[in-house]
Structure formats: structure tokens, C-alpha cells
Design a protein that fits this description.
- The complex is a heterodimer of chains A (about 450) and B (about 350).
- Chain A contains 16 helices and 8 strands.
- Chain A has about 450 residues and is mainly α.
- In chain A, the strands form 4 sheets. Chain A has a two-stranded antiparallel ribbon with strand order 1-2.
- In chain A, a hairpin with a 2-residue loop joins strand 1 and strand 2.
- The mean pLDDT of chain A is about 95.
- In chain B, helix 1 crosses helix 8 and helix 6 packs across helix 8.
- The longest helix of chain B has about 30 residues.
- The chains are: A mainly alpha (about 450), B mainly alpha (about 350).
Chain lengths: ~450, ~350
Amino acid sequence: MELDPLLLSRLQFALTIGFHFLFPPLTIGLAWLLVLVEWLGWRRGDDDYVRAGVFFGKILGLTFAMGVATGIVMEFQFGTNWAEYSRFVGDIFGAPLAVEAMFAFFMESTFLGLYLFGRGKVSKAVHWFSILMVAVGATLSAFWIIVANSWQQTPAGFVVQNNRAELADFWAVVFNPSTIPRFSHTMSATIIAGALLMAGISAYLLLKDKETAVARKTLKIGLIVGLIASMAALFPTGHHHAQQVARTQPEKLAAMEGLIHGRENAPLTLIGIPSEEPPELNFAIGVPGLLSWMAFGDAGAHVDGIEDLRAQGHPTPPLAITFGSFHLMVGLGSFFIALTGLGVLLLAMKRIDDSRISRLFLSLLIWSIPLPLAACQFGWIVAEVGRQPWVVYRLLRTSEAFSQNVAAGEILFSIIMFGTIYLMLGVLYLFILVKKIKQGPQPLVVKEI
Amino acid sequence: MRTMDLNTAWFLLIGVLLTGYAILDGFDLGVGVLHLFARDERQRRIHLQAIGPVWDGNEVWLLTGGGAMFAAFPLVYARVFSGFYLAFMLLLAALIFRAASIEFRGQVDNAGWRRFWDWAFGLGSLVPALLYGVAIGNVVRGLPVAADGTLNVSFLALLNPYSLLVGVFGLVMFVMHGAAYLAARTDGELQQRMARWTTGAWTVFVVLYLVVTVATFFVAPYYFEGIQGNPLLWILAAVLLGSIGYIPVAVNGKTFTRAFLASAGAIASLVGLFGLSLYPRMVPSSIDLSNSLTIYNASSTPRTLTVMLIVALIGMPLVIAYTVYVYRVFMGKIVITKDGY
């Protein structure tokens, strides 16, 4: 079999970004939750929160290290595997990556060291400030990475000359049409990931009757923040993002929604079974007119389908993966609202841990810990597969972007290498995470300064 | 004096980033290599404790250097990184292992587990410490950049004797730097041991420096052209010789922080000399020097360079300010704690 360097490069990118992207959402979400927890510990002088901070801080540190280890690859991979892409977009795409490093990555890693190792060495105010800077840095980091990726989705602020895309307007690049919708939607997803991690771990401690005073407090924070973020992921951020996709990337919208033939009164498909070539959607159940209304604010509005866009000469992305991932993401998002909503209800009724039903609910919370990460992965797949066959939308094809000077065998080698290392790291991360969770919050050691 | 053009400013800025990286991650790479030679568990924990709060901030200098290279000289980023494919993958694997080992080692109380991660940490530090020099050696030697700017070079071709020599030189330099750092942050028996390591590595470093310089005359004669008249050469050379000469003095006087700073000065002036000799080339071509990737033919547009220069002039002073602050918090002799590594 002839090895295809393009396919291999795409597989490697999917593998390395997919694995990397498990960690940043947890880091960002957990960092913001710790800003809250540490604030309560500091201002209320409540040691339960301080102990929760130490406990979840260790999990943050572990997760952050995994993000760093896997993130190094990302900073260089455009050059190693996507040299033609780097050459073509370097004048524009390198800038947000460099800004991310200078304004965000330094901040989060430097202050994380201070946060994790500085307790007792610096004042409580400085210590709280350090976790705030970790959260701000992680958020800025997400912002600049999303700027770079959004430019691939909805390129703006450039001219093509000298056989490459050259910068015309920096702020138009930064605030390209999809930056803000995608950033806000991603941020809501990261908060869900952090909140459900905190809630799930607290549920475990409650079920095991360990450190229940601490666990009740963090469970409450996780559930309330989780509910707010889950609702925000749907509205306004998810809705806003979908409207932007409808406006700026109709091919992606058609594939997400499984709309084959354009029409007025386009239905919002709830379920259906897609198949490719010719694109079809079978056994579809949907709400008539709802897609038109959600996308353009008018139930009668015309929405282009896959066939219409093809007829206009625009290539369309793989249908099944885009449609399937999108619907799984939305399904999970709806589940998070129900889950955290129920949790907040139980909290309000003060029935969170005193009945068989509430114990079932707590077990469900534990098993829900990985689900926001699955939703993040599905969302990312929609974003990236839904953009195909373009690496920069309607400007540069993925097939033109890979490194011509790297042999397929070399890429195969690196895929196997990363695959092996990541499998090992993933197993060890879970092993150590579970170990830390089982240890639970520890008593405070009074340090002598 | 001519005003400095944008491309030169960026060349200088990337030089500053790489110097920052070499000085900061340099000592923790050196500590990692020394970890392979540690005598007991206490020493190993001191090693990890010594770099624990700062190592990932140090590594960000490399990421920033990579990002800045992408933004300012995308053609160098694209051609060199794909051209060095396997070497780069090896480097990335080593850095991943290194990061993982620092985090994982202390998590399980088991001798076999710790031994495994000790090796991962040591080799994960040794491989990058060696490869950086190998990469620099290859750049000095020149790479087969074709007339259309493309670059094809096999992994084995990168491992030529001259580049390996530079690699070993770099490795020894990082070991010296790491030993001086540890000497400054420990006391008693371990401090004396690190003092001996600093002096020993320093001796090898001086010998290798002479050998590398002579070899470079033969391998890359272009390297010395046109810089003799440059006053910067003499300033950098003076800093280099002063720093190198001062290291054993400081070690003998037991002022290890000064030894560490002198070693940092030596590293900075070496990177400076490398940049000065290369300028304005970034990747000299071994096929024909006129094919070389330079700061002009490989750069971004003036608009991008301007925007990013403003970004860097705002961003980097902030970075330096809080990095200095955090280092000050963690300065002093290392105490092993339960929460540490």
C-alpha cells in the first residue's frame, strides 16, 4: 500500500490536537473555579475552601503539566508537517501564536508555579492574585489560539500577494467574523468541563463519606457554576455561534444540520441518519421552520443545502462526521443542563445527599466527569471537519498545505511515536488523577514562614 | 550609525528569546543531566525541588521563540522545521517525557517507578541539551537550501562530526550551568559536589570551545568574514572571556550565585557571537551561499513585523518583570517539603 503523506499528516494533527485538547478545557475551567474557591477561603477565612483549593490545585497542576507536555508539539507542528501552510499564512497566522506565548503562556505557567508552590511564602492576597493570573492567562491563551483558528474559518484582514496571504489589517484578523462567537462558546464549554470535574469529584467524596464538609461546598459551586455555563453554552453563545456559521460558512451549517436541499421553512433536524455521495439524510425527525428561524431570525428564510452550495461551485465537507459530531455535542450540552439543573434543584431542596435518589444522582455526576471533554472534542471536530476541504476557508486547500519535503514513512514513524507516548501519558494521567481523588483533601499543614 | 531596520530588530529579538531560553531552560536541562549522576534519593528530590516552580515558565521561552520565528520569519519556520523532521520529533518526544517525569515521579512511592522517571527526566534533558548544539552546528555548517528555498536533509546527515562536536560542547555548557545553579541553591556536601562538577565541566567547556572554534575555521570560513571590524564582536568576546575567566574564581570563592551569573553571561555572549556571525543570514546554504534564507528573503511583511514589534515591546518587559518577581520568591536554599516533589 502506498502511504499518503497528506492523510498521515492529517491523522497526526488530529491525534496530537485531539489529545492536547483534552487538557486545556479542564485547566481553564478549573482555574476559574479555583479563583472563586480561593477567594472564599481568603475572604471568609474558611479553611474548608483553603483545603479544597490545595486539593483541586494539585489536580490543576497535574492537568496543566499534561497540557504543556502535549502543547509543545502544537507550537512546532505547523512547521514540521504543514510547511506549505506555514509559508502561505505565516505573515498572519504566526502573529496570534506569538502573542499567545508572550501575553498568555508565560503568565499562566509563571503564576501557576507561584500558586502551587507559593502558599505560605507570599501573602494571601498575592496568592489569590496568582491563581487569578493563571485563569486570566489560560483564558487569553484560549483567545489567541481561537483567533488563529477562527482566521482559518473566516479569513479577514489580508490580501493575497507574492504568492501568500499578507497582513492588511491586524485588528480585522484578530476580530474576524468568527472570533468572538467561537471564543465565547469555547469558554462556556471550558467552564462546564471544570465545573463538572469539581462536582463529580465532590460527589465521589460525599458517596465515600470523606471530607463531606469540604465536598458539600465544592459540589454546590460545581453545580451552580455548571448550570450557568451549560445554559450559556446553548444560549447565547451556541446560538450566536450557529448564526455566525450560517452567515459565514454555509457549507458547514448545511452539513451540521444535515440539510441536503435548500429551502424556506428549513427544519431543525433532531435526529437522522446521514450517508454520503449522494448526500442523504434518512429517518430524519425535525421541527419545521426552526432552522430558518434560528439561523436568520425568520421561519420563512431560505437556508442553502449541500446540493445548492455544490451547484454554486463550493465543495462541501464530509456529511456524516460533521452531522454526527454536531448532534452528539448538542445532545451532551442538553444533558448538562438537565444534570446540573436537577442538581441545583436537589441543592435547593436540601436533598443532595440523603436519599437513594440523591445517591444515584451523585453516581451519575461521577460518571459525567469526562462528558464535557467528549462534547469539546465533538465541537472541535465540527469546527475542523466542517471546514474541509479547506485549511483556510475558500483560500487554501488542506491538500496543498502539507510539507512536501517530509517522507510518508517519517510521518508514520512520528504517528506511532506520539500514539505510544500519548497512550502511556493518558493512562498515567488517569491513574494519578484517581489516586489524588481517592486521597481526598488533606489537613492543612501550618507552615512556618 | 545606521538606524536599525525592522528585520534586524526581529533577528535581535529572536536572539534575545533564544538567549533567555538557553540561560533559563539551560540550567534546568543541566540539572536534568546531573540527575543521572545523583547519589541518593535526597539529592534527586533536591534537583526536582530546585526547578519545580520554574521549569515550565523556562520552557515557554522556547515556545515563544518558535512562535516569534513563525510570525517574523515564516519561511525559516516552515523550511527548517520540516527539513529537520525526525530530529524535531525526537526533541519533542524528549521534552514530553521530561515534562511528564517531573510531574509523575513523586506521585507513587515505589522505587521502580521512581527509577523509571529518573531515567526519563535525565535522558529527556540530555537529548535536548545535545540536540540544540547539533542544530546550531548544522546551521553554522550550512544546510542544503536549494535555489527555490526548499530544504531536504536526512536525519543521519544532521549527525555529522562537526555538529556532534558542537552538540557535546552545548551539553557540557548546560551541565556547567546547571551545576552552578545547584551549587548556589544547596549547601553542605551536595554544594561541594556541585562546585566540583562546575569546575570539571568548566575545564571541558574551555577545551571544547577552543576545538570548536578551530573546527569552525575549516568547516564554515564564511562565518568569520566581515565581522572583524564590528565593535560588537569585541564587546561580546570581552564579555565571553571575562565570564569564562570569572567562573572558577567565583567557585573558589564559594560565591556560587556569581558563578551561575557568569555562566549565564558566557551563554548569552556565545549566542550573541553566533547571531552576529550569521547575520543577516538565518540559514546559510551549503549548496550556494546565495541560496541562504536571510532575514530579508524569509521574513513577514513590514506591517506584520511592525505590529509584532509593538506587541513584543509591551509584552516582554511584563514577562521579565513577573519572572524576576517569581524567581525572587523562590530564591534561597532548597528545603524538601512534603508537598514538593
